[in-house]
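Thread: Newbie trying to understand structure tokens

Hi all, I'm a second-year student working on a class project, and my supervisor (Dr. K.) asked me to get a predicted structure for one chain before our next meeting. I've only ever worked with sequences, so writing a 3D structure as a token string is new to me. If someone could post the tokens and maybe explain what I'm looking at, I'd be very grateful. Here's the chain:
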Amino acid sequence: MRVNYNWLTEWVDIDLEPYDLADMLDHLGIEVEELDITANDAIFTLEITPNRPDLISVQGLAREIAAKTDKKLKKVIDYQIPEEHAQNKEFALAVTTESKEDCARYIASIIHEIEIRPSPPIISERLEKCGIRSINNIIDITNYVLLEVGHPLHAFDYNKIGKEIIVRRAKNGETIKTLEGEEKELTNLDIVIADNKKPIAIAGVIGGEESGVSETSRTIVLESAYFNPTLVRYTSKRLKLSTESSYRFERKADIGMLKNASAYAIYLLKEYANGKLVGKVIDTNPSPYIHKEVSFSYEKVNRLLGKDVKKEEVDRIFNKLSLQKRGNDNHPKILIPSFRRDIEIMEDLAEEIGRFIGYDNIEATFGYRSENPISLEGKEILAVKKIMPSLGFYEAMNIPFIECSWAEIQDKNPIELKNPLWSDKSILRTTLLPSLISSIKRNLNSGEERVAIFEVGRIFTLDDGEEEMIAATLAGEIPPNWYEEKHPIDFYDLKGIVVTLLEKLNIQEYKFSGCKDSLFKEERALSLLINTETIGCFGLLSQDVCKVDIYGVEFNLQKLLSGSTKRIKFGGTYRYPPVKRDLSIVIDEGKPYEDFKNAIKDAVVNDVQIELIDIYKNSSVGKNKKSLTFRLELYHPEKTLTDEEIEEDMENVIKKLSKLGAHLRK
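---
Reply by user tm_fold:
Sure, no problem. This is what the structure looks like when written as tokens:
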């Protein structure tokens, strides 16, 4: 929304320079996106939150500024529709609203003998500054009223619509040519203004070309109405028609403003178009219920704010905001004006008090402390959530529903929803990975080169109930750095992350083995074992959601944390030098090297450090075979190992590896 400084000063005395006013508006929660200083004015571009439709007008902003600066409004729009005006039977009109839910109120006035001409500068210049093109005095007046008081109006050419207006749902397949000259096909979820033949406007969005005001128009019907905000938004989004009217209607217009806005427009039409009100002004709901009361407690609000705000100060703020107190101080009720549709509960009133005393003036205190301290398990989960960002991952929080197909792939017994929010997400998740895969796809499609996200959450099955899990996904490219070039993410990048996570959690006794989980590609995945129990898998995901390779990991969090050593013990360094031996073996290509590394570790009697230093594939090694070269560093804490002790360890290793189908490379 755009508004100019000089127009605001017509409503309220402002002692602030434009930049200072912008700062004050920001502190009130009205974001100033841009401030354009001109020779004799300043134009503010504001971002108004959807819950504050009262601020989408000069009047609403002036009310807010006046309340904050302890000023009174200099201008009040309180025009009345003349009770005595020309009653001419020639200008008969009937209005029918088929549903009060779709159109709670509709006011129609007939203005005769209008003169179409350019608008006076006071109107056209203000419209231009606010980003609206000046067309003619009639259209400009409806837009001027919209900007000043915040309620959309529309003008029809009386001679083009017959003598009946019907507010109804469109019929499937009906069409209308809009004021922009576009043909739009309608559905039965669109509200339309129609005559007895066809739609003449899309309610709350845009008028029709055939019923619009033209240079030859002499009599108009002025519409002031309240339409269902949800349906207006649906129509606007579906037809890709975002207008000044739809922007306000979909945020809930002020139903109490309809008559006032109409009377103001009638006054301006008389002043600038010589228009005369004729016939009967039709109002389908002349006495709408527009006020509501909210229970209030000074004590509770002070607890919510964390500050002792005096009763007199609260009453002063409420008075400035047109919030009327009723009843005694022990159990007061606050009468909410119709333009403040965002205030519904006591917490909303607390927010208003906080805005006006300034959140910067509320002293920072320690937050709520539960009587039950965080459990040890909870602290460990928090530790995991801190470790993952240090490894380059962003945390995600997804809804706990997935497609049935994922449970079928896993062969798990899912919990089905009786009334799912989405037809394609009808079960509670049996894995965290599907939502993370979808997030990877969205981010890659948005141009991200590398995406790494994780989630800690629960999965659900009929067999195992609820289980706390941690899952992460990784895709894209590793950026270049001083020790490596840019390259696509691969299995070893993910494995390095898993190993680092285990180290940071101080998990020392673990093994990797082959992965049989159907969510992963077996030849490029491993399972993690702690205390001989499989806690999950990691590797290349078996998915067709995204064209690129996505690597993932999913572990049972409780089982993962159970392997953590609670106390870290520091041992001395080895006093005697290690003995190094390189061992090259030939194995089947599909077998993971971790199985052979674990076998070496089990076979050696002495302390050993094992490192894979080479992988070799060639026809000389054998078809579907590969060669692995391990470097073994053998230690003894109290002496230098003898040749006999080393040979004994190596013989044990060879025997152990042969049982796994490996043989020495020749």
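A couple of things are worth pointing out once you decode it. The mean pLDDT is 90. The first strand starts at residue 2 and ends at 4. Feel free to ask follow-ups in this thread.
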